[in-house]
Structure formats: structure tokens, C-alpha cells
Design brief:
The relative contact order is 0.12. The chain is globular and about 50 Å long. The chain is built from eleven helices and six strands. It has one domain. By secondary structure, it is α/β, with parallel strands linked by helices. The strands form two sheets. The protein has a four-stranded mixed beta sheet with strand order 1-2-3-4. Strands 5-6 form a two-stranded antiparallel ribbon.
């Protein structure tokens, strides 16, 4: 039986022609990230970028992208794994010029097993997060130890590669990990004040208000998006609750 990763990789290769494999994967991940982020903190700029990316594809192609997303969700439901990192490396679209190589997940799991869970909650910063493999492995280790990571783990993920940021945000969202994810140069801009994405908050973060106090806030200023006309506030708790209520009604 064909597994989910093979289905996704095969579909991306099948769709390539008008657009390359790299472009299709990048658009697919970006649209997922924007869809999840706008459920927590609406941004018209993200919405506009989503629509522009969507227009690049025919109705049939867009439905294929949607089917790939369904496979990804099903895969996430079956196991904790660096799914997008695996797909990315097997599509062979990593940035060789910068030496980009995502840590194999079994090594992430090995490192996660060295973490002491005697004091909770666990707070973690992943300054070069890639697709988020190390954080997923940490959450998996907590789960295996009988700890509910959705209320005992707070994470900040950063990466200079915008595509990696989108991958990490999608996976943090799918696994319900309380996380703030943004693009920045960790050395020059550790707090993401010059980030091109602004801070993206997972729904897992908004569902765990007891962890909000661990977010480091260097200033109360609005987050300014370079080369964008609007500014972003911190996520609106009431807006999130309204969206959550609507989601629960549909179950």
C-alpha cells in the first residue's frame, strides 16, 4: 500500500511542468501556513498572497493540492514525524549553496530523549528550526512520557529561510504544539522585530493561555512588516474564540 509521503511526492512530480517541483512545494506549504495563521491572527496581506498563489493553478491542480493537504493531515494523525522535512529532502530541493540539510528524524528523537521533564512546563527556542523536526521529536518524547505537551510545552521557532518557517508553522499547527514561529536572522534579529512574516501563533498556543506568560516581549510596539502597508497586533483572544466556537459547531 502506498504511504502518504509517496503519494504527496508523486503528485508534486506529476503536477510539475508549468511550474517546477520547488515552486509547487513552496506554494503548497505557504498556502497551508497562511490558512492556519489567519484563523488565529487575521492578516489581509497573507490573505492576498494566498489568493495570488491560488490563481497560479487550475481548478484541477488546486484540488490536487487540497488532496495533498488531506494526506498530510492523515499522516499527522497516524504518527509524529518531520513529515514536510522528509518530503522536502526527498524532493531534493534543499539549498545546497547554503549547506541546507534537515536533521534526520531519528537523530531528533535521540536528542529529545536526553531532555529532563522533571520540571514543567518546558520552554524551548529553536533558532534554526528548519521544518521543526527537533520540536516535533521533543513533543513526541513528552507524549511518550505521559505528559500532555499541549499544556506543558512552549516553543519559539525561527529560521532565516521563509520556506522553512512555513513548514515548521504548518507542522506545529497540525500537532497542536503551542508555538510562535517567525522568519528572522537569529543573530542579528533574535526577537524578530524585522521579520518579514511577523510572529505567527499556532492555535495550540491560543488554546494554552497558561503558557502565554513565557513569551518574551522586548517592547509593546506593533509588529511592523517591512514593505507592507499594515501593521499586526498581538492575536485577538476573542477573535480566536469565535473561530474556535464555529469550528466546534461543525463537529
Amino acid at each position: 500500500m502506498e504511504n502518504m509521503s509517496d503519494k504527496i511526492i508523486k503528485t508534486i512530480h506529476k503536477m510539475s511542468g508549468k511550474y517546477g517541483v520547488y515552486e509547487i512545494f513552496s506554494d503548497w506549504v505557504k498556502m497551508q501556513a497562511f490558512a492556519y495563521a489567519n484563523q488565529v491572527q487575521f492578516s489581509q496581506a497573507r490573505e492576498d498572497e494566498y489568493i495570488e498563489a491560488m490563481k497560479r493553478y487550475s481548478k484541477e491542480e488546486f484540488l490536487q493540492l487540497a488532496e495533498m493537504t488531506a494526506w498530510l493531515v492523515e499522516w499527522a494523525d497516524e504518527q509524529m514525524f518531520d513529515m514536510l522535512g522528509y518530503i522536502y529532502m526527498h524532493l531534493e530541493i534543499g539549498n545546497k549553496r547554503t549547506g541546507q540539510f534537515f536533521t534526520p528524524y531519528h537523530l531528533c528523537q535521540l536528542m529529545a530523549k536526553t531532555v529532563d521533564f522533571s520540571e514543567l512546563p518546558i520552554t524551548a527556542n529553536e533558532p534554526t528550526c528548519g521544518a521543526g523536526g527537533n520540536i516535533i521529536a521533543l513533543a513526541e518524547a513528552m507524549k511518550d512520557a505521559g505528559i500532555n505537551y499541549q499544556h506543558n510545552l512552549f516553543v519559539v521557532c525561527q529560521d532565516i529561510d521563509i520556506k522553512a518557517v512555513y513548514m515548521a508553522f504548518v507542522q506545529m499547527s497540525l500537532y497542536g504544539i503551542p508555538a510562535i514561529v517567525y522568519q528572522s536572522d537569529t543573530l542579528l534579529d533574535p526577537n524578530g522585530l524585522k521579520s518579514t512574516t511577523g510572529k505567527m501563533y499556532t492555535i495550540g498556543y491560543m488554546m494554552a493561555p497558561e503558557l502565554w506568560k513565557y513569551e518574551r516581549k522586548p517592547s509593546d510596539k506593533k509588529i511592523v512588516f517591512p514593505e507592507r502597508e499594515h501593521q499586526e497586533e498581538q492575536p485577538d483572544e476573542m477573535y480566536v474564540q469565535m473561530n474556535l466556537n464555529e469550528f466546534l459547531k461543525g463537529e
